[in-house]
Please model this.
Amino acid sequence: MTVGVEVHATGTIPVASAAQPPRFELWHISKGFETPGGFRPVLDGIDLKATSGSFISIIGPSGCGKSTLFNVMAGLEPADAGRVYVDGQEAGGKREHFGYMPQKDLLFPWRTILDNTTIGLEVQGKPRKEARVAAAKLFEPFGLAGFEHARPFELSGGMRQRAALLRTVVQEREILLLDEPFGALDSLTRLEMQTWLAEVWVKYRWTVVMVTHDVREAVYLSDQVVVLSARPTKVRLVKDITLPRPREEALMATPEFAAIERELLEVLHEESRHALQTQRVTV
Amino acid sequence: MAAATVTEMAVLPPTIEEVQDAAGPRRRRGKGQRAASRTLETVGPVLLLLVVATVVMQAVVDQGNIRPEVLPSPSRVIRSGWAAREAIWQNTVPTLQVTAIGFAVSLVVGWLLAIIVDFSRFARRALTPILVASQTVPIIAVAPLMIIWFGFGLLPKVIVVALVTFFPVTIGLIEGFDSTPKEASSLLASMGAGKWRTFRYVRLPSAMPSFFTSLRIGITYAVTGAIFAEYVGAKYGLGIYMSMQKNSFRTDLVLAAVLVTSLISILLFLSTYLLQRLVIPWYGQEKRSQT
Model:
């Protein structure tokens, strides 16, 4: 650990290209939990970085610690070892850099859609009026115009997810963490949402880290797909997706797309088998 | 004749007024009628049951030559009750007073305890067993002691009412706060909210449906609690009124007072729904949208 820090201080790790320094970087993140059966390592030295305005997807076998990784990044749980950097500054345990969008939309029934989207800003101390003005501007591009004063239960699943994303985006944090944002949607709505997200992302160029189970979704939306290994989790593969943008739905039918998808799926399956085996051993 | 008119109307093209009518007031009238029939659907069965029970009781008493001191007929209860309406009303006001003050105290105590428990794990562990233990105290044994300690005034009765009702209120609130999804707390934490803001923005509103349920339970206990406290010893109140009428074998007046008590409880119970609709209108809307 100390050795690592020294190395880091001399500037050999992390390698930041002079042209574009990483927006954020995870360096050797490790974390485990005490369980009744003893200490269980979950994250085992995760390295990850993203340049500003890039879209990164994380896939991995189930139970590989993706949520733990997100919690560490969002500053909700401390890492046992390793560092989090945002724009070159140490940001471990800080909550102001990452905007977190959970899997469930968690829109509160006692608030209108507009007031749901302003809740982050309100929590951060912004006057309600200003928060509303800021959020209202995004309703049009998010396809929610006219639903400002509706209640969550009046919206479709896709609209609810868009509102949840708006709530995250409006906080203007450096990096967005999307935790399986479309996991609970039916396949048709999911496809619509993916196309929509690809469109708005090109427009706004947020720095995004998305966890997903859907390899196709990962390839379609991302600049880079990171495959995590079975627990204790390491980065198994980092795959740059150089498919041209803007991407259209038809892209998913091309042989190039299929080749990338197959490659990632193979690695993922291998890790899933691995996860099953180790589970059997521990049980 | 009537059939002919209907056919004629169906054949003729509708006039503009008729179209406007259909869209406007007529539809509203239809809505009103539907609401009325829905209300009848809701309260119809219980009214029917009450009427049948009353008729049966009346018949049994009339045919069976039962002495009114033992079992008065419903008509006798109503008649005597109406004749004694002034005395009953005079005794109803203090009961209402005890109920209101006692329940208000119970609400304040319940909210305070629940918030303390929600904020402090230590308080949760220290207070929860005591809260439960407080409910094992037999009120029937303690209420007379209250009179020995605090006299015949308002205080012992307020304490009894508060003692019977603060438990459901407190537990309802504590469990309501705890019903907040864990993910919602994480979300708020990721936004930078501390304990207090998480409470204010999520835990408090999440607890409201559960609070109103416990309010309903508490308010019905409050009325019977007040009556009970008065029954043990009081100058005025429906409780002591019932006790005195029982001692002079006026079963009819006891039952008349019971009837008043039930009416008060039902009205208070229903009023909690009204309050709920005012305070958390979203809850009903959401529930209706799910069915």
Q: What stands out?
A: The radius of gyration of chain B is 26 Å.
